[in-house]
Amino acid sequence: MVQAILWDCDGVLVDSELLCQQGWVDVLQSRGHDVGVPAFVQRFVGHSSHQVLEHLGLPAETHAEVRSRIYALFREHLQASSGVHEVLSELRHLKHAVASNASMMSLNLELELTDLASFFSGHVYSAQDTGKGKPAPDIFLHAARQLGVSPEVCLVIEDSTPGVLAGCAAGMQVLGYAGGSHCTEGHAAQLLQAGAKTVMTDLRELKQLL
Mind listing the UniProt keywords for this protein, alphabetically (predicted)? Predict the structure, then answer.
């Protein structure tokens, strides 16, 4: 029986992935990289900023420029995912935590801009807390410990393959979410292949799946 829900943030709680990718692409193009948003999404969705920088061979200081651009886009355009306030309100009897590869600074900004922070009572966790991002299971196991529950009673909601793999590796139930504006044809199939039990395209489906 599910006692706690562990939510990814970008692309699940908030419809932010395309804004994040646009921020990256804007900075990369300014540095001479020939890359567009669709290709960037396909290649890097679900990865931490450190992983992206490492893969592209960019210096660590690039992240500050990217972060500044993304935050500007957030303040102008960021929206909560459709139905998420309704679902969280109706499932208040369960424990909830955010478990994300994003930085705490980014998570706090996103939750505040979308009026979601109050649903989590401070249970907001970043890969910075564990030193290992998804697909390692560490962030989900850390969140479960902080909530005082065992992995087998946790349900993970994820929109990325690394996130689904992390939830499965943590020994938790995993549902995929493919309702974000960044999700293209085949996204749901990728989540199922990674181990998601099923895939939602509307978060309101969660109430019937519990």
Answer: Magnesium, Metal-binding
pLDDT along the chain (210 residues), means of 10: 97 93 92 86 77 87 93 98 98 98 95 98 95 96 99 98 98 98 91 98 96
Place of tokens 């006692």: 3
Q: What is the pLDDT of residue 42?
A: 78
pTM of the model: 0.89
From CA 3, how far away is CA 116, in angstroms rounded?
A: 20
